[in-house]
Structures are given as C-alpha cells and as structure tokens.
Amino acid sequence: MENFSFYSPTCFVFGRDTENEAGAYVKRFGGSKVLIHYGGGSVVRSGLLDRVKESLEKEGISYSLLGGVKPNPRSGLVYEGIELCKKEGIDFVLAVGGGSVIDSSKAIAAGTLYDGDFWDFYQGKHIEKALPVGTVLTIAAAGSEGSGDSVITKEEGMYKRGAGSDAIRPKFSILNPALTETLPAYQTAAGITDIMAHLYERYLTNSAEVEVTDRLIEGLLLTMIHEGPRVIADPHNYEARANIMWAGTVAHNNICGVGRSQDWNSHNIEHELSALYDCAHGAGLAVTMPAVFTYQMNHNVMRFAQVATRVWGCQMDFAHPEITAKAGIEAFRSFLISLGMPKNLEELGGKEEDIPKLVEVLCHGDGRKGTISGFVTLDETDCEKIYRMML
Ligand code: NZQ
Ligand code: ZN
Predict the structure, then answer these.
(1) Which residues lie with the beta carbon below 6 Å from any ligand 1 atom?
(2) Of 49, 97, 322, 358, which is least surrounded by CB within 10 A?
(3) pLDDT in tens, 241-268
(4) Is the pLDDT at 367 greater than 90, yes or no?
C-alpha cells in the first residue's frame, strides 16, 4: 500500500424525505443567499424543486434559480451561472439533480471566486477556493455528490475535461433513494454502469498489497450485481435503490482508491464519446470498458483473473489464467447488456469514420501530449485500436 492522505468532509444525509432538510443544511454550512441549480426539468415535474424551495423559505434563506443544465454539462451555462452569482452576491450553490447539475454547480462555485477564466481549472490549474456547494441527488451514478471532481464540456472544440480539488467537494449531500424512482430504466442502468466503472478504474492498479481496498471494491461490485437486476425489474424497489445509491457514493469519494494507483483510461476514452455523441456517460462506458480491459489484460493478467474469480464466479484456470481473465471481462460485458446497455459503438450512436477524430481529440486536444496514462500508458495507435474494438 502506498502513502496517502484522505480528506472527505461531506456530510451525507440519507433516507426518505430528507430533501425537506435542505434549508437547514444550507444554514448549517453558512449559506444565506443561494443559487439553486438544476437540469432539464425532471426536478420541476417531480415537485422536488418546490419542496427544496419551501425548505429554504422555512429557514428564511433567499435564493435565485438557474435551470437548464444538460447531461454532459456545457461551459456556456457555467459562465452564465458565474455572472449571476457575482451579480446577486450568492454565497452558496445548491445543486438539485444528477452528476451533470452537481458538476456545473462546482464549476460555478469555483469560477465565482476566480478572476480568470474558469476553464483554466479544467486545463490543470488548481482550485484554491470556491463557494460552498450542497447537493440534493436525483440519480445514483457519477458519485459527484461525494467527490472533489467536476467534468465539463467546453463548447468550442467539444473538449470534455475534468478538474479536481477538495475545495469543490460538497459540504453536504442529501441522498433520498426514493427520488431516483422516476428515472427511466436506461438512466438507472447507465448509473449502475458508471458506479461499476468507478470501482474497476480503482481495481486496475499497479500498487501491490492493497487487500483492504481490493476487498471493499469487490464487495461493492457484488452489491451492484445483486441489486442491478432487482431495480431494473422493479423500479420502485426502495431497498435496492438505497443500496445502489450508497454504493455510488462510496465508489467514488475515493475511500476505495486510497493507497493505490488507479486507471481512468476507460473514463478518458469514454469522455470523447459522450462529448461527440452526447450519449449517457454510463452507456459510453458500457461499450468502452470491455474493449479497454481486453486491450490492457496482458499488462497484469492475474488482476483480471482475480476479479473474475472473486466477483464473477469464474473458475480459475491456473495453466491459462488469461482464459479466466477474459471470462471475467465477458461476464461483465454480458451483465451490462442484460441491464439494457449498448454493446457497440453503433448502438451508442457512433460511427467508424469518426475514430480518427476521437483519437485526435483524446490524445492531442486541449493541450494533451499524445498519450493517456493509467494502468498502462496508451498512445494514439493503442487508442485507435481500442475504439476499433468497439465496432
Ligand atoms: O436534466 P433532467 O431533466 O434533470 O434529467 C436528467 C438527465 O436527462 C435525468 N434525471 C436525473 N435524475 C432524474 C432524472 N430523470 C428522472 N428522474 C430523476 N430522478 O437523467 C439524465 C442524466 O442526468 P446526469 O446528471 O447527466 O447523470 P449522471 O449523474 O450520470 O451525470 C453524468 C455526468 O457526470 C460526469 C459524466 O461525465 C457526465 O457528464 N461525471 C462526473 C464525475 C464526478 N464529478 O466526480 C465522475 C464521473 O465519472 C463522470 O465522469
Ligand atoms: Zn464515471
């Protein structure tokens, strides 16, 4: 295990009706003038936005509203939000929605206290300070409710890039699993896929002797394998949704990632797909991960064989561990397809002729130097081969 420091001070408020406590938590964390940020309308239709507004009013907290965050959130609305916060003297950003809304909120929170262009943060500049952010989560997926990360797409060039800092980690996150019952099955499945991706990206490590985090990850993957089909069969299964929601948070607040190197090649390769095709991030990962894992398998076949036996119930073939490793990848692929996820680039809305462009933006776009690096380092040729494996 490698040295680490782990600082994850988000207050999680979990359970039915907890959204009614949003106002009290904003107050507890010092908010007096709030920007409520939300997406394309699901929180309006469900009545959630009204309940959150009421809870702020009950505490005598004033607010401004900014809706319209799109999945794969764009820079345009972030600039608008920053301007609004500065003009109105906002001191707290409350995200009501999914990962896209939360990420847009984090970008606004950081950009409001910064004199330069907020995009600097998505090109590597460290975020020193930000307005406090709180969240009311409506989909178990990205883990942004507990992470210090934000992913935004810059419209000029359609660069989808991430920024990370403890300064944007939410002060509190309200997690009511019942709020996720209105999700379309496809979004529920995309969320499950993303959660499993966050676990796999940490599992694929070059660090030795990381038994605690390996076992945490395996337990969470097994939970997703148990709960995923249950929630697809019955969208109103509160207990299944509760387990998935909490798994989504601990999969990505990095408690499973400490003391070990991590991968993130699948995420980087996928981000180009959701940037170009505007597909759900989780759906893009369902197509990306089997290809990336197969391509990277020989780097450490025993790691893939380990997850295959411990999580997917594969029989260990000691003479040919690569057979076990591959069986685990195939079991994962089949599981994702059984949840309703796409199996190839075409089903995702992608096209073979776009591959050179995907590779170019992935390896060279917005200041990249020709490679991406994780479990293994991948250059343009590797990335092109991986995209072709998705056909
Ligand atoms: O916009 P509305 O109308 O709210 O609809 C959303 C959206 O269309 C809908 N939805 C959300 N909750 C709902 C609901 N519909 C009905 N009932 C509900 N309860 O679902 C759609 C997808 O929402 P989105 O917020 O985009 O989903 P998700 O949470 O999967 O977020 C995806 C974004 O997060 C980024 C992804 O790249 C992507 O841009 N990620 C952020 C990370 C982070 N900050 O730590 C890490 C992740 O790896 C990921 O990259
Ligand atoms: Zn993800």
Answers:
(1) 39-43, 71-72, 97-101, 103, 138-139, 141-144, 147, 149-151, 179-180, 182-183, 187, 191, 194, 252, 267, 274, 281-282
(2) 322
(3) 999 999 999 999 999 999 999 999 999 9
(4) no
Percent of the chain with pLDDT over 90: 98
> How many alpha carbons fall within 13 Å on the CB side of residue 301?
13
Predicted confidence at residue 366, as pLDDT, reads: 82
> What contacts 98, CB < 8 A, 6 or more positions away?
39, 71, 137, 138, 139, 141, 142
Model confidence, pTM: 0.98
Written as six digits, the tokens of 273 are: 């797909």
41 CA closest ligand 1 atom index = 3
The ligand whose atoms approach the alpha carbon of 241 most closely is: 1
- Burial class of 386 by CB neighbour count within 10 A (0 to 12, 13 to 18, 19+): buried
Query: Which of 58, 59, 69 minimizes the C-alpha distance to 95?
Result: 69
CB of 262 within 8 A of CB of 210?
no
- Per-residue pLDDT, averaged over 113-125, amounts to 97
